[in-house]
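User: quick one, sequence for these tokens?
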């Protein structure tokens, strides 16, 4: 059995006619169902936000106690992370674009939408907002994992190496970027006997097996061991002082 999606909306609008029309349009929707709370001032909206959570905030910019972009700034500075859709007049489209730069998800021009357009615009903004939240969450998880990897590498005194044979790119955790030149050389730029390392890696690629190779660094004269495996047309390895 499918459950109808219900979304809580905070409508911030001081014009009675505009407020009635938007509530009417949203009330016509059956999938999803919008539960609308209404405030006429920024003060009233902030009071509602202090005691409730809303999926969507639809806000006029010009209110009795707030004007223009400051309306959006007040909402998002006090309650960041909310989805805000701005309502503008016909002459305020440029200001509407400016509010998006300050964190609003989208803007709608009064008089240029009907119920169908309003609901579709709101849902598009809602789905995009959710997707961005997921992307941010994944990015935070990746950053955390990368931090753990860097810490482990420091504790073990190892560096990570990855050579993509298809793209001819090399990633080395001791470097600041990936490369597209001679990826063998880029893998270990301080290798004294570079030809021997290249032969070892070439053998691994040809036989599609792993291996290890001991080399000296030209910058400090110390010996290092690279242990690597071949998989998915890539070489994965770790480098550690011998």
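Assistant:
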């Amino acid at each position: 059995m499918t459950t109808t999606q219900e979304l809580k909306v905070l409508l911030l609008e001081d014009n009675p006619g505009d407020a009635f029309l938007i509530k009417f349009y949203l009330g016509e929707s059956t999938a999803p169902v919008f539960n609308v709370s209404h405030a006429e001032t920024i003060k009233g909206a902030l009071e509602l936000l202090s005691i409730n959570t809303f999926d969507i905030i639809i806000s006029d910019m010009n209110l009795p106690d707030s004007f223009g972009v400051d309306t959006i700034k007040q909402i998002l500075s006090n309650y960041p992370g909310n989805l805000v859709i701005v309502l503008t007049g016909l002459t305020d489209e440029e200001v509407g674009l400016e509010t998006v730069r300050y964190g609003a998800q989208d803007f709608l021009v009064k008089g240029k939408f009907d119920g169908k357009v309003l609901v579709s615009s709101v849902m598009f903004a809602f789905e995009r907002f959710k997707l961005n939240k997921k992307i941010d969450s994944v990015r935070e998880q990746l950053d955390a994992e990368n931090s753990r990897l860097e810490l482990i590498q420091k504790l073990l005194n190892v560096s990570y190496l990855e050579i993509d044979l298809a793209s001819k790119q090399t990633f080395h955790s001791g470097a600041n970027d990936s490369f597209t030149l001679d990826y063998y050389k880029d893998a270990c730029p301080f290798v004294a006997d570079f030809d021997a390392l290249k032969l070892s890696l070439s053998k691994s690629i040809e036989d599609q097996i792993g291996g290890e190779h001991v080399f000296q660094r030209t910058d400090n004269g110390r010996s290092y061991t690279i242990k690597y495996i071949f998989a998915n047309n890539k070489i994965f390895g770790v480098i550690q002082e011998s």
